[in-house]
Amino acid sequence: MVSARFKVGDRVTVRVFVRDMAERAGLNMSQLQRRAQLPMSTMQRYWHGVGAEGQPLTSIDPRHIDTLCEVLGVEVGDLQRRVPSEPQP
Predict the structure, then answer these.
(1) Where are the domains of the chain?
(2) What is the model's pTM?
């Protein structure tokens, strides 16, 4: 996966792309959850990219990242990417 190039001063944030990578691998959320052996509540947060307080999820627990990469056949940068920040009101 090629990451976008940003200039110094660009407003960027990190977002989680577990669902995108799982769907490319032909897996739904339940299949990924079983193969990765993670709690469903954790998988739901990763799948939907939303944290416990409803905020956009910006990282994957380091204890889970290796397993997800192995199950999906991807690299860390495929699951977590820098994207332009949404403008603040």
Answers:
(1) 18-84
(2) 0.78
Q: What digits encode the pLDDT tens for the residues 53-63?
A: 888 888 899 99
CA angle (67 as vertex; 12, 21 as ends), nearest 5: 50
Q: Which two tokens stand for residue 49?
A: 């990219």
User: E-assigned strands of 1-89?
Assistant: 12-16, 80-84
Q: Say how far apart CA 57 and CA 15 lie, in whole Å.
A: 6
3-state class (DSSP) for residue 48: helix
The one-letter amino acid at 17: F
Specify the CATH number of the domain 18-84: 1.10.260.40
56 DSSP 8-state letter = B
